Amino acid sequence: MLFKREVERENDNRFGISKVILNFFNSERKKVWINFNGNGMAYEFLDPNQIKKIQNLGYDFLAFNYRAVVKSEGKPSQKGLIEDGKSVIKYADSLGYDDLYIQAHSLGGVLATKAVAQLKDESPNIYKKIKLIVDRTFASIKAVLKTYNIFRIIKWIVIKILNFTNWNIKVKKDWEKIDIKKCLFYAPKDEVIEEKSALFRKVKNTTDENQLVELKNYGHCENLTTSDLKKAISIVC
């Protein structure tokens, strides 16, 4: 059964509507898999075979688009994107699931980590249900920019703008604040998020090594295999 549902969300004191899509594979299942997209990705373009892998592992699948992506309304801001994430997690909880599994890739990893860290204080009962799987994400936007091969003055200007507009999202402290079951995938050969800018590099000394999973010979966008997914599930269960 496939249907769409509207979720109310806050955007800097204004309210908008975010479209979400929930695929009920079996209404009796008590686990939901919440997907946080990477930058520029919409749920309409997710690989259906990847969704099927997750369903076959026993999960309902919930995906959504950030504000200003496809039909989702609103103006993007750091605060707003994090609020979107929290709203969708709360929505999933309202459906009665016992376990809320979150898989968050790239930019989605940053947003999900910050959302979950905030829910620890704001909604502890929901927070305790979460199993967090972060996949190939960065420590901060500034750290990623510093690895790009662009003119130094242009890089400096962009970084200053990020700082001024509060868009330099940092996530190390949020990751370390989270004390529920969590897992972090990292790829040494990631061509988008290089090792210098990866969250893994910042938290590897403060994170249980059993929660860190290396993806050998993976680039940034390759889908996780069923074996990878099972590995993550075994860590966060």
Q: Fraction of residues in helices?
A: 25-40%
Roughly how many Å is the radius of gyration?
A: 17 Å
Q: In percent terms, what proportion of residues is strand?
A: 15-25%
The number of distinct structural domains comes to 1
Regions with pLDDT < 50 over 5+ consecutive residues?
1-21, 153-165
Which second-level CATH architecture applies? 3-Layer(aba) Sandwich
The separation of the N and C termini measures 27 Å
Number of helices: 9
Provide the CATH superfamily. Answer: Alpha/Beta hydrolase fold, catalytic domain
- Total count of strands: 8
Query: What would you call the structural class?
Result: alpha/beta
Order of helices and strands: EEEHEHEHHEHHHEHEH
Across the major sheet, the strand order is: 1-2-4-3-5-6-7-8
Tell me the major beta sheet: 8 strands, mixed
Shape: globular
Name the average pLDDT.
82
CATH topology: Rossmann fold
What does this molecule look like?
This protein has 237 residues and is an alpha/beta fold. It has a single domain, classed as Alpha/Beta hydrolase fold, catalytic domain (Rossmann fold, 3-Layer(aba) Sandwich), CATH 3.40.50. It contains nine helices and eight strands. The chain has an eight-stranded mixed beta sheet with strand order 1-2-4-3-5-6-7-8, with helices on both faces. β7, α8 and β8 form a beta-alpha-beta unit. It is globular and about 40 Å long. The two termini are 27 Å apart. The N terminus is likely disordered.
